[in-house]
UniProtKB/TrEMBL annotation:
Keywords: 2Fe-2S, Iron, Iron-sulfur, Metal-binding. The lineage of its organism: Bacteria, Pseudomonadati, Pseudomonadota, Alphaproteobacteria, Rhodobacterales. It comes from the Bacteria. InterPro entries: 2Fe-2S_ferredoxin-like_sf, 2Fe-2S_ferredoxin-type, Adrenodoxin-like, Beta-grasp_dom_sf. This is Ferredoxin, 2Fe-2S.
Length: 106
């Protein structure tokens, strides 16, 4: 298991354990992070799992693929380190990762 920390827009932190191989989106849903709606269930088709990573974590995860880059154009207030949490796979390298949920997800 890998520990992840979700920081909601109001500052509330939710820490959770995530299984290797699951998506960060699924970890958020399992942990009750309400701002991660995950309406498409992880198909990279809606943007409702938008998150913003601190730069050091953004640099550590695999680069986004073209379909994710395209979908990020439609989220409200994208940031340079925006990602769709459904496209980030939990690995041991993500131990302790902080994931910020933007105001636009509320």
């Amino acid at each position: 298991m890998v520990k992840l920390k979700f920081v909601q827009s109001n500052g509330t932190e939710i820490e959770t354990d995530a299984a290797l191989g699951m998506s960060v989106m699924q970890a958020a849903v399992n942990a009750g992070v309400n701002e991660i709606a995950a309406e498409c269930g992880g198909a990279c088709a809606c943007g409702t799992c938008h998150c913003v990573l601190p730069q050091e974590w953004f640099d550590r995860v695999a680069a986004p693929q073209d379909d994710e880059i395209d979908m990020l154009e439609f989220v409200i207030e994208p940031q340079p380190t925006s990602r769709l949490s459904c496209q980030i796979v939990v690995s041991e390298d993500l131990q302790g990762m902080e994931i910020n949920v933007p105001d636009s997800q509320v």
